[in-house]
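Memo to structure team: turn this sequence into C-alpha coordinates by end of day. - J.P.
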Amino acid sequence: MGTPAFAVPSLHALAEAGHHIVAVVTQPDRPKGRGRRLTPPPVKVAAEALGLEILQPGRLDEPDLVRVLTDAGADFFVVVAYGQILPPSLLRLPRRGTVNVHASLLPRYRGPAPINWAIINREPQTGVTTMLMDSGLDTGAILLSSATPIAADDTAATLSARLADMGAQLLPETLKGLATDKLTPHPQDPAAASYAPLLHKADGRIDWHRPAEAIEALVRGLNPWPGAFTFCDGQRLKIWRAHPAPEQGAAPAGTVLAGFSEELRVMTGRDALCIDEVQGASGKRLPTSAFLRGNPIAPGTVLG
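Reply from structure team:
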Protein backbone atom coordinates (compact mmCIF):
# COMPACT_ATOMS: atom_id res chain seq x y z
CA MET A 1 0.00 0.00 0.00
CA GLY A 2 1.65 3.19 -1.18
CA THR A 3 1.11 6.21 -3.39
CA PRO A 4 3.91 8.76 -4.05
CA ALA A 5 7.39 8.41 -5.52
CA PHE A 6 8.74 7.82 -1.99
CA ALA A 7 7.04 4.39 -1.98
CA VAL A 8 8.30 3.19 -5.37
CA PRO A 9 11.77 1.97 -4.24
CA SER A 10 10.11 -0.14 -1.53
CA LEU A 11 7.82 -1.76 -4.10
CA HIS A 12 10.80 -2.56 -6.31
CA ALA A 13 12.72 -3.93 -3.32
CA LEU A 14 9.91 -6.35 -2.50
CA ALA A 15 9.78 -7.56 -6.09
CA GLU A 16 13.54 -7.93 -6.37
CA ALA A 17 13.67 -9.87 -3.09
CA GLY A 18 11.33 -12.46 -4.59
CA HIS A 19 8.26 -11.76 -2.47
CA HIS A 20 4.92 -12.72 -3.98
CA ILE A 21 3.05 -9.42 -4.15
CA VAL A 22 -0.63 -10.32 -4.17
CA ALA A 23 -1.83 -6.80 -4.96
CA VAL A 24 -0.86 -3.16 -4.84
CA VAL A 25 -3.28 -0.73 -3.17
CA THR A 26 -2.81 2.93 -4.13
CA GLN A 27 -4.79 6.17 -4.23
CA PRO A 28 -7.11 6.90 -7.18
CA ASP A 29 -5.82 8.87 -10.16
CA ARG A 30 -6.02 12.62 -9.48
CA PRO A 31 -6.24 15.72 -11.71
CA LYS A 32 -2.83 17.34 -12.07
CA GLY A 33 -1.32 20.37 -13.73
CA ARG A 34 -2.97 23.32 -15.42
CA GLY A 35 -4.88 21.01 -17.73
CA ARG A 36 -6.22 19.04 -14.74
CA ARG A 37 -5.55 15.80 -16.57
CA LEU A 38 -6.15 12.62 -14.57
CA THR A 39 -2.72 11.36 -13.55
CA PRO A 40 -1.90 7.98 -11.97
CA PRO A 41 0.14 7.97 -8.75
CA PRO A 42 3.79 6.91 -9.12
CA VAL A 43 3.16 3.60 -7.35
CA LYS A 44 0.47 2.68 -9.88
CA VAL A 45 2.88 3.36 -12.75
CA ALA A 46 5.53 1.17 -11.10
CA ALA A 47 3.04 -1.60 -10.34
CA GLU A 48 1.80 -1.64 -13.95
CA ALA A 49 5.38 -2.05 -15.16
CA LEU A 50 5.75 -5.03 -12.81
CA GLY A 51 2.49 -6.59 -14.03
CA LEU A 52 0.86 -6.50 -10.60
CA GLU A 53 -2.81 -6.33 -9.69
CA ILE A 54 -3.72 -2.76 -8.75
CA LEU A 55 -6.53 -1.65 -6.45
CA GLN A 56 -7.48 2.04 -6.17
CA PRO A 57 -10.27 2.37 -3.62
CA GLY A 58 -11.70 5.73 -2.69
CA ARG A 59 -12.04 4.50 0.90
CA LEU A 60 -10.29 1.69 2.73
CA ASP A 61 -13.52 0.46 4.33
CA GLU A 62 -15.17 -0.34 1.00
CA PRO A 63 -16.69 -3.86 1.28
CA ASP A 64 -15.26 -4.98 -2.07
CA LEU A 65 -11.74 -4.01 -1.00
CA VAL A 66 -12.07 -5.73 2.37
CA ARG A 67 -13.31 -8.88 0.64
CA VAL A 68 -10.44 -8.91 -1.86
CA LEU A 69 -7.81 -8.36 0.83
CA THR A 70 -9.41 -10.99 3.08
CA ASP A 71 -9.42 -13.56 0.29
CA ALA A 72 -5.78 -12.74 -0.55
CA GLY A 73 -4.57 -14.46 2.62
CA ALA A 74 -1.47 -12.28 2.84
CA ASP A 75 1.28 -12.92 5.37
CA PHE A 76 2.08 -9.19 5.51
CA PHE A 77 0.67 -5.87 4.49
CA VAL A 78 3.39 -3.32 3.73
CA VAL A 79 2.46 0.35 3.97
CA VAL A 80 4.72 3.11 2.62
CA ALA A 81 3.26 6.65 2.44
CA TYR A 82 -0.16 5.38 1.40
CA GLY A 83 -1.97 8.56 2.44
CA GLN A 84 -4.85 7.17 4.50
CA ILE A 85 -5.07 5.69 7.98
CA LEU A 86 -5.74 1.96 7.89
CA PRO A 87 -8.81 0.91 9.91
CA PRO A 88 -8.37 -1.84 12.53
CA SER A 89 -10.40 -4.21 10.34
CA LEU A 90 -7.60 -4.16 7.74
CA LEU A 91 -4.75 -4.25 10.25
CA ARG A 92 -6.08 -7.58 11.54
CA LEU A 93 -6.12 -9.28 8.13
CA PRO A 94 -2.48 -10.27 7.42
CA ARG A 95 -1.23 -13.33 9.32
CA ARG A 96 2.11 -11.82 10.37
CA GLY A 97 1.15 -8.16 10.72
CA THR A 98 1.25 -4.85 8.88
CA VAL A 99 4.69 -3.30 8.39
CA ASN A 100 5.14 0.42 7.82
CA VAL A 101 8.18 2.28 6.47
CA HIS A 102 8.23 5.72 8.12
CA ALA A 103 10.61 8.53 7.18
CA SER A 104 11.92 9.45 10.62
CA LEU A 105 13.73 7.97 13.58
CA LEU A 106 10.68 7.08 15.61
CA PRO A 107 9.32 8.09 18.04
CA ARG A 108 10.57 11.47 16.72
CA TYR A 109 8.45 13.08 14.02
CA ARG A 110 5.38 10.91 13.95
CA GLY A 111 2.84 12.15 11.45
CA PRO A 112 2.47 13.04 7.76
CA ALA A 113 5.39 15.44 7.13
CA PRO A 114 8.49 14.12 8.97
CA ILE A 115 10.99 14.95 6.22
CA ASN A 116 9.93 18.57 5.93
CA TRP A 117 9.89 19.24 9.65
CA ALA A 118 13.26 17.61 10.29
CA ILE A 119 14.81 20.13 7.85
CA ILE A 120 12.75 23.09 9.06
CA ASN A 121 13.77 22.38 12.66
CA ARG A 122 17.44 22.09 11.61
CA GLU A 123 17.89 18.58 12.94
CA PRO A 124 21.42 17.22 12.49
CA GLN A 125 20.11 13.85 11.34
CA THR A 126 17.01 11.87 10.53
CA GLY A 127 16.36 8.41 9.11
CA VAL A 128 13.84 5.70 8.40
CA THR A 129 12.11 3.26 10.71
CA THR A 130 10.18 0.08 10.03
CA MET A 131 7.47 -0.69 12.54
CA LEU A 132 4.48 -2.93 13.17
CA MET A 133 1.41 -0.79 12.68
CA ASP A 134 -1.25 -0.47 15.35
CA SER A 135 -4.37 1.69 15.57
CA GLY A 136 -2.39 4.80 16.62
CA LEU A 137 -0.67 7.33 14.38
CA ASP A 138 2.87 5.97 13.88
CA THR A 139 2.83 4.53 17.40
CA GLY A 140 3.56 0.87 16.57
CA ALA A 141 6.48 -1.17 17.84
CA ILE A 142 9.82 -0.40 16.19
CA LEU A 143 11.49 -3.12 14.12
CA LEU A 144 14.58 -1.63 12.41
CA SER A 145 15.93 1.86 11.82
CA SER A 146 18.70 3.55 9.86
CA ALA A 147 20.02 7.11 10.24
CA THR A 148 21.50 9.68 7.85
CA PRO A 149 22.91 13.18 8.44
CA ILE A 150 20.92 16.10 7.05
CA ALA A 151 23.28 18.00 4.78
CA ALA A 152 23.45 21.79 4.78
CA ASP A 153 22.05 21.86 1.23
CA ASP A 154 19.42 19.14 1.63
CA THR A 155 15.91 20.00 0.49
CA ALA A 156 12.78 18.02 1.16
CA ALA A 157 13.19 16.57 -2.34
CA THR A 158 16.80 15.41 -1.96
CA LEU A 159 16.28 14.06 1.54
CA SER A 160 13.08 12.27 0.51
CA ALA A 161 14.88 10.48 -2.32
CA ARG A 162 17.66 9.36 0.00
CA LEU A 163 15.28 8.14 2.70
CA ALA A 164 13.15 6.32 0.12
CA ASP A 165 16.19 4.28 -0.90
CA MET A 166 17.13 3.65 2.74
CA GLY A 167 13.63 2.44 3.51
CA ALA A 168 13.73 0.13 0.52
CA GLN A 169 16.97 -1.39 1.80
CA LEU A 170 15.51 -1.88 5.29
CA LEU A 171 12.21 -3.44 4.20
CA PRO A 172 13.34 -6.89 2.93
CA GLU A 173 15.56 -7.30 6.00
CA THR A 174 12.58 -6.43 8.20
CA LEU A 175 10.27 -8.97 6.55
CA LYS A 176 12.91 -11.68 6.68
CA GLY A 177 13.51 -11.05 10.36
CA LEU A 178 9.81 -11.22 11.17
CA ALA A 179 9.21 -14.29 9.02
CA THR A 180 12.02 -16.18 10.77
CA ASP A 181 11.16 -14.87 14.26
CA LYS A 182 14.63 -13.32 14.53
CA LEU A 183 13.42 -9.76 14.87
CA THR A 184 11.92 -8.53 18.13
CA PRO A 185 9.61 -5.50 18.02
CA HIS A 186 10.42 -2.80 20.60
CA PRO A 187 7.70 -0.49 21.98
CA GLN A 188 8.16 3.22 21.36
CA ASP A 189 8.87 5.57 24.25
CA PRO A 190 5.92 8.01 24.32
CA ALA A 191 7.96 10.51 26.35
CA ALA A 192 10.41 10.88 23.45
CA ALA A 193 7.72 11.33 20.78
CA SER A 194 7.23 14.41 18.63
CA TYR A 195 4.78 15.18 15.85
CA ALA A 196 5.23 16.38 12.25
CA PRO A 197 1.89 17.93 11.26
CA LEU A 198 0.51 18.16 7.76
CA LEU A 199 1.77 21.17 5.82
CA HIS A 200 -0.46 23.67 4.05
CA LYS A 201 0.36 26.31 1.46
CA ALA A 202 0.00 29.07 4.05
CA ASP A 203 2.81 27.51 6.11
CA GLY A 204 5.25 28.69 3.46
CA ARG A 205 4.78 32.42 4.10
CA ILE A 206 8.04 33.82 5.41
CA ASP A 207 8.12 35.69 8.70
CA TRP A 208 11.06 38.05 8.18
CA HIS A 209 11.33 38.65 11.93
CA ARG A 210 12.77 35.16 12.33
CA PRO A 211 16.56 34.63 12.09
CA ALA A 212 18.05 34.20 8.62
CA GLU A 213 19.20 30.64 9.33
CA ALA A 214 15.67 29.64 10.37
CA ILE A 215 14.17 31.13 7.20
CA GLU A 216 16.80 29.39 5.06
CA ALA A 217 15.87 26.07 6.69
CA LEU A 218 12.21 26.78 5.96
CA VAL A 219 13.04 27.38 2.30
CA ARG A 220 14.81 24.03 2.05
CA GLY A 221 12.23 22.15 4.08
CA LEU A 222 9.37 23.34 1.86
CA ASN A 223 11.19 22.74 -1.44
CA PRO A 224 9.46 21.71 -3.68
CA TRP A 225 6.09 21.79 -1.88
CA PRO A 226 4.38 23.84 -0.57
CA GLY A 227 7.23 26.30 -1.17
CA ALA A 228 8.42 29.27 0.88
CA PHE A 229 7.08 32.61 -0.33
CA THR A 230 6.75 36.29 0.42
CA PHE A 231 4.97 39.27 -1.12
CA CYS A 232 6.51 42.25 -2.88
CA ASP A 233 4.14 45.12 -3.66
CA GLY A 234 1.26 42.67 -3.58
CA GLN A 235 2.94 40.15 -5.89
CA ARG A 236 3.75 36.68 -4.63
CA LEU A 237 7.40 35.57 -4.85
CA LYS A 238 8.32 31.92 -4.34
CA ILE A 239 11.79 31.44 -2.85
CA TRP A 240 13.57 28.32 -4.11
CA ARG A 241 17.08 28.80 -2.73
CA ALA A 242 18.68 31.20 -0.25
CA HIS A 243 21.58 31.53 2.15
CA PRO A 244 22.22 33.59 5.30
CA ALA A 245 24.71 36.46 5.33
CA PRO A 246 26.04 38.43 8.34
CA GLU A 247 24.36 41.84 8.61
CA GLN A 248 24.42 44.27 11.51
CA GLY A 249 22.22 46.97 9.98
CA ALA A 250 19.25 48.56 11.70
CA ALA A 251 16.79 48.16 8.82
CA PRO A 252 13.40 46.68 9.71
CA ALA A 253 12.89 42.97 9.09
CA GLY A 254 11.86 42.29 5.49
CA THR A 255 13.69 45.31 4.05
CA VAL A 256 15.58 44.85 0.77
CA LEU A 257 19.10 46.11 1.48
CA ALA A 258 21.04 48.54 -0.70
CA GLY A 259 24.46 47.93 -2.24
CA PHE A 260 23.81 44.52 -3.82
CA SER A 261 22.81 45.15 -7.43
CA GLU A 262 22.90 41.49 -8.53
CA GLU A 263 21.43 40.17 -5.29
CA LEU A 264 18.20 40.29 -3.35
CA ARG A 265 19.50 40.65 0.19
CA VAL A 266 16.78 40.98 2.81
CA MET A 267 17.08 41.96 6.46
CA THR A 268 15.69 39.42 8.92
CA GLY A 269 15.29 39.29 12.67
CA ARG A 270 18.97 38.35 12.84
CA ASP A 271 21.40 38.74 9.94
CA ALA A 272 20.29 38.94 6.31
CA LEU A 273 19.00 36.38 3.83
CA CYS A 274 20.39 36.32 0.29
CA ILE A 275 17.74 34.98 -2.07
CA ASP A 276 19.52 32.93 -4.74
CA GLU A 277 16.61 31.61 -6.80
CA VAL A 278 13.12 33.04 -7.09
CA GLN A 279 9.91 32.67 -9.06
CA GLY A 280 7.27 35.31 -9.73
CA ALA A 281 3.56 34.61 -9.56
CA SER A 282 3.31 33.72 -13.25
CA GLY A 283 6.94 33.32 -14.25
CA LYS A 284 9.66 30.73 -14.36
CA ARG A 285 12.05 29.70 -11.62
CA LEU A 286 15.12 31.90 -12.16
CA PRO A 287 18.44 32.86 -10.58
CA THR A 288 17.81 36.07 -8.70
CA SER A 289 20.14 38.11 -10.90
CA ALA A 290 18.14 37.10 -14.00
CA PHE A 291 14.83 37.73 -12.24
CA LEU A 292 15.88 41.24 -11.17
CA ARG A 293 16.81 42.23 -14.71
CA GLY A 294 13.19 41.89 -15.71
CA ASN A 295 11.63 42.63 -12.33
CA PRO A 296 13.73 45.21 -10.48
CA ILE A 297 13.11 45.55 -6.74
CA ALA A 298 14.29 48.84 -5.26
CA PRO A 299 16.36 48.89 -2.06
CA GLY A 300 14.17 49.85 0.86
CA THR A 301 11.25 47.80 -0.40
CA VAL A 302 9.72 45.84 2.47
CA LEU A 303 8.75 42.22 1.76
CA GLY A 304 6.06 40.54 3.77
